[in-house]
Design a protein that fits this description.
Elements: E1 8-13, E2 19-20, E3 25-26, E4 40-44, H1 50-61, E5 70-75, H2 76-81, E6 85-88, E7 96-100, H3 106-119, E8 121-124
Antiparallel strand pairs: 1-4, 1-5, 2-3, 4-7, 5-8, 6-7
């Protein structure tokens, strides 16, 4: 399924090492899928308010050990420019999707993750959402 290139995605971030508050940037590690996995979990958020986006993160992604710190927002068009697709995966939520297929080659994965991180916008979790 192809979505509009102007539709917005978000990648939830749980580690402070994946972003810089000072530089207002997302680091490429936020876009690295686990080794030997070709998919990267994201959510389609164009139709949502800020509080609804954070609610999805809290309810469907955050765990006791993985607390939300921030998120990286980007346009689907930036994913398409990296020759990747956004594929719906309605579990655990109807707006969940996967960016796929990430190459197996580590250097190529790094290159794509860096490109997506550069294209993304850092959004720090507001104090009232923590």
């Amino acid at each position: 399924m192809n979505y509009s290139g102007g539709e917005k995605l978000t990648r939830f971030i749980f580690s402070k090492r994946h972003f810089s508050v000072e530089n207002k940037t997302v680091k490429y590690g936020a876009f690295m899928p686990p080794p030997n996995i070709a998919d990267l979990s994201v959510f389609r958020i164009s139709s949502l308010s800020e509080s609804e986006v954070w609610e999805i993160g809290r309810r469907y992604v955050e765990t006791e050990k993985r607390r939300l710190k921030a998120r990286a927002d980007l346009l689907i068009g930036d994913v398409y420019e990296s020759n990747l697709e956004v594929v719906p995966d309605t579990q655990p939520h109807e707006l969940h999707a996967n960016i796929t297929p990430f190459p197996i080659d580590r250097k190529e994965r790094d290159r794509i993750a860096r490109k997506l991180a550069l294209a993304s916008e850092l959004v720090i979790i507001p104090p009232e959402e923590t």
